[in-house]
Amino acid sequence: MNDRATHSSRFGAWLDHHGYSIVASLGRLLRKPWATLLTIGVMAVALALPLGLWVVLGNMARLGGEVRESREIAVFLKQDVGAAPARALADALRARGDVAHVELVTPAQALEQLRARPDLAEAIDALGADAAQAALPSVLRVTPRGDELLLADSLKTLPEAERVQHDAVWRKRLDAWLRFGGRAVLVLAALLGLGALLVVGNTVRLDIQSRREEIGVLQLLGASDGFVRRPFLYLGAWYGLAAGALALAVLTAAWLALRQPLADLSAEYGSSFALRGLDPLPAACVLVGAGLLGWLGAGLVTGHYLRQTRPTET
Fold first, then answer.
1. Which residue from 11, 145, 216, 288 has the least number of CB within 10 angstroms?
2. Residues forming beta bridges with residue 75, ordered by sequence position
3. What is the pTM (predicted TM-score) of this model?
């Protein structure tokens, strides 16, 4: 019974010290606001840069996914190919096994699509509808069923085809740039994360130096390293959490500033693409990761300095 009561009291004291360390470390941050803001600001910049690049790459990958989903091959027919031969060619292509879908866009339909754009409607009216329609060829939009490169090459051999437009090369280049960008984000995140780790470590080291005598007294009284280290660990965690929150605030402000201009730009090109920020789950992971980063930096420094300040046995 006594052992159980002793164990319960020790556990209660352990919890009490954790609560005290959390509150006390936060109080130390608030007592020196300017120095705290400087440290948090440096860490926030180190976190915001790779996060911002990661968000940009995520939006680029989403845009690239939309492009990859559009696997259409545009076959521009010669001017002398009339409506009946164009329909016959479309029917012949639909019968092929490597073709999933064929859509015929006549000059009249293409003219209506162009007229729907405000920047081209006046030019079409000035040119004249008949003249504009006569200058437009019939177009076959072919959706491949299998290998689109082989299909594009075979479509180029059609005698009715004037030009075949296919964006596979552009998509491959985009994928290569996205892979390079993802690797660059990892390298940049590692370097700047190390910088944030060093910032926290140096800040905690200065705090340890100012409390060296207090730490020495605690060690002489038999306090364990965990007891002495705990307030500094929470101090580092507070730095990390605050820096992560500030980095997210900076990214949110940038997203709000760029969202509408990008939406307007996309609308000019007939696209509904919209800039997407961090979802709640990744944002929460950023906060947790930043807190752990601060905790780790404080733990590395306190472990080193506590070994130096530990009293030697005689």
1. 11
2. 140, 164
3. 0.65
